Amino acid sequence: MLPAVARGHWGWFHPCARLSVRMSSTGIDRKGILAERVAVVTGSTSGIGFAIARRLAQDGAHVVISSRKQQNVDRAAAQLQREGLSVAGIVCHVGKAEDRERLVATALEHCGGIDFLVCCAGVNPLVGSTLGTSEQIWDKILNVNVKSPALLLSQLLPYMEKRKGAVTLVSSVAAYFPRMELGVYNVSKTALLALTRTLALELAPKDIRVNCLVPGVIKTDFSKVLHGNESLLKYLREYLQMQRIGEPEDCAGIVSFLCSPDASYITGENIAVAGFSSRL
């Protein structure tokens, strides 16, 4: 049984409104391709997660955003609501079972069901070698980056399987091209590729699709260790076929597509959005 939703700071919070018309990027009103569907997006108050949450809402979905800090949830939710989008939010540390329970309960209470899960939350508390990493850091990275998506999905599954939903995990191009200074983070993001394929097999009989977004170097606070390094940035611009660093919005459209009926026969795929071919 899910516990009752804890009452906290809900001054800005409103139930998911039944909004069915959204403005496309071309400025033309259209029926949202995700209208009346419900998406839960973790790690979604900034960066890639925020861009994905905004795009899903623009395409008609009712979106529940979350992250670890109340002030970030409040700010992100208020910004999206000012844009006329159907968005609610709650604090959730995905590594904590009680927070995951509360996230699920919130989505059910305010939106009536769950169709899509997008797992953007991730951590990398250490820049350093794999073998020099403490057991505590190993546990933290694997707990948040690998275990939590599977555990959260297991909590959502009874509600998603009634609605033939879709799951998108967010890995990193570091899974294909590990950088020495990212150590255990590389390992965790590689594990997500295998988790995607495994869950896709397990959930296909339930008509739930599981795919993985594999971003390259995207300009976010999380990746400052990469795009904030001028010499590395120069190298990347020369190496990338697209000749630029990615923006969070570059990742948003593909996730909306993967949630949509247009992707109804796509599952178990790891899709790179990296400015170059992951097969180089």
Task: Provide the descriptors you would attach to this structure in a database record.
280 residues; alpha/beta; Rossmann fold; 7-stranded parallel sheet; two-stranded antiparallel sheet; 9 strands; 40% helix; 15% strand; globular; disordered N terminus; Sc_DH/Rdtase_CS; Dehydrogenase/reductase 2; NAD(P)-bd_dom_sf
Polypeptide structure, described:
Belongs to the short-chain dehydrogenases/reductases (SDR) family. One of its GO terms (molecular function) is carbonyl reductase (NADPH) activity. One of its GO terms (cellular component) is mitochondrion. InterPro entries: NAD(P)-bd_dom_sf (IPR036291), Sc_DH/Rdtase_CS (IPR020904), SDR_fam (IPR002347). The structure is a single chain. The strands form two sheets. The protein has a seven-stranded parallel beta sheet, sandwiched between helices. A two-stranded antiparallel ribbon has the order 1-2. Helix 1 crosses helix 8. The protein is built from eight helices and nine strands. The protein is 40% helix and 15% strand.
What's the quick description here?
The protein is built from eight helices and nine strands.
Strand segment tally: 9
CA gyration radius, whole angstroms? 18 Å
What spatial form do the alpha-carbon principal axes imply? globular
- Domain module tally: 1
Q: How many strands, what sense, and barrel or not for the largest sheet?
A: 7 strands, parallel
Q: Helicity level, as a percent range?
A: 40-55%
Q: What's the CATH class label?
A: Alpha Beta
Low-confidence parts, pLDDT < 50 over ≥5 residues?
Answer: 1-15, 17-30
Question: Which oligomerization state do the chains in this entry correspond to?
Answer: single chain
Strand arrangement within the widest β-sheet reads: 5-4-3-6-7-8-9
**What gap, in angstroms, lies between the N and C termini?**
48 Å
